[in-house]
Backbone:
């Protein structure tokens, strides 16, 4: 009985010793017998292959391990355990990078000491930030990791061998190409803001073109129709171009012969052009007045009969004398004088200096020289008709007997101091 009890005790002790050995091996493996000073590492992501108890290194030397990884408000927070005898050798402005040991191997934390390292050592509870460049490398590796898992090793090996064969012996040329690309990018980078602005403006222009696209399409359709029309009339166009060519040759001959004369004409007509420019403001109302008077003139000669009323003026001016030498004294500038709708009778005749002295101005009309309105015979008498015929015959270049009665009828009231109005 005592022997059986002794065997059972030995079995229990063996099992306890075996469990103690397993726990001891696990504790040694997990470094539970070691103490660490914990610091925090803030990082955007930790990737896919950062294992528990991952190494923490400084310049390739292991100084601790990753104790814990958890998510935070702005990314992930790693708890790093730094060996107490190593933490005093690490400056407090150190940064960290999460790097793979091999291309596709597990990752570790590399503490990067900057060039301007602080003299203050890292302390327990401090926070470390992650560098930017390893984040980009890590992101690339994380992005291609699912792809690499999907690719079969044999096919990947074949592709890598083909790529190695293609690049073999071309390293120097590839390096030169990369340097050339780098020089291009250095010149291109300062223009990136301008490029972004151009792209922004391009979007606005594209919107404008999108709005007018129907009009552009309609214009193109009309252009096709115009092209078809020109094609159908090609013979006429050719004849037209030949005529233009002939006219050009004729015009060239004319200009060669008269070019100097045209230039001289322009020089000589400069004063007249300036005068026309000065009075150009009254041309519209003058032309409009002439157009409006056309129906009145047609009504005056209706039925091929001249319809007028002759009214004797109450005031008769003296006749012209030798001292009345005409001059051009119009200096009042452009004036429409009531045109195109003048008042009837018109009383706005300007009082201009025309060289005639001592005569009444305004509404009074002047009589011919040596003609006294109070001593002449009544208008239309034979003696007055003969007088006016003799007076107007030299002007018309015909004998006095051939002067038309209409001339005497019109000129008589003017010379005798009467006014002609249209009825």
Residues:
């Amino acid at each position: 009985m005592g022997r059986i009890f002794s065997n059972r005790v030995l079995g229990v002790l063996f099992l306890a010793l075996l469990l103690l050995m397993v726990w001891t091996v696990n504790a040694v493996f997990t470094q539970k017998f070691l103490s660490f000073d914990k610091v925090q590492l803030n990082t955007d992501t930790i990737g896919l292959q950062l294992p528990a108890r991952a190494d923490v290194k400084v310049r390739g030397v292991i100084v601790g391990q990753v104790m814990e990884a958890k998510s935070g408000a702005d990314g992930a927070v790693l708890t790093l355990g730094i060996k107490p005898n190593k933490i005093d050798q690490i400056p407090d402005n150190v940064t960290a990078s999460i790097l793979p040991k091999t291309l596709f191997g597990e990752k570790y934390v590399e503490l990067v000491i900057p060039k301007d390292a602080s003299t203050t050592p890292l302390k327990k509870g401090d926070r470390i930030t992650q560098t930017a460049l390893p984040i980009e490398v890590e992101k690339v590796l994380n992005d291609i990791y699912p792809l690499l898992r999907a690719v079969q090793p044999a096919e990947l090996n074949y592709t890598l061998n083909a790529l190695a064969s293609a690049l073999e012996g071309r390293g120097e040329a590839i390096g030169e190409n990369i340097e050339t690309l780098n020089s291009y990018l250095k010149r291109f980078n300062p223009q990136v803001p301008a490029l972004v602005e151009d792209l922004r403006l391009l979007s606005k222009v594209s919107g404008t073109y999108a709005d007018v696209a129907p009009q552009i399409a309609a214009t193109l359709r009309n252009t096709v129709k115009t092209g078809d029309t020109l094609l159908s009339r090609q013979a006429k166009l050719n004849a037209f171009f030949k005529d233009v060519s002939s006219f050009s040759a004729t015009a060239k001959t004319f200009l060669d012969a008269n070019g100097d004369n045209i230039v001289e004409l322009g020089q000589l007509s400069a004063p007249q052009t300036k005068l026309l420019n000065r009075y150009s403001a009254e041309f519209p109302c003058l032309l409009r007045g002439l157009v409006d008077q056309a129906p009145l003139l047609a009504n005056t000669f209706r039925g091929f009969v001249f319809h007028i009323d002759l009214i004797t003026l109450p005031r008769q001016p003296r006749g012209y004398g030798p001292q009345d030498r005409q001059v051009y004294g119009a200096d009042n500038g452009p004036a429409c004088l009531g045109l195109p709708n003048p008042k009837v009778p018109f009383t706005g005749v300007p009082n201009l200096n025309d060289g005639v002295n001592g005569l009444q101005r305004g509404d009074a009309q002047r009589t011919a020289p040596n003609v006294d309105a109070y001593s002449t015979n009544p208008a239309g008498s034979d003696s007055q008709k003969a007088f006016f015929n003799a007076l107007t015959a030299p002007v018309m270049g015909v004998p006095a007997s051939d002067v038309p009665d209409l001339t005497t009828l019109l000129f008589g009231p003017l010379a005798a101091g009467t006014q002609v109005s249209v009825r």
Summary: The radius of gyration is 58 Å.
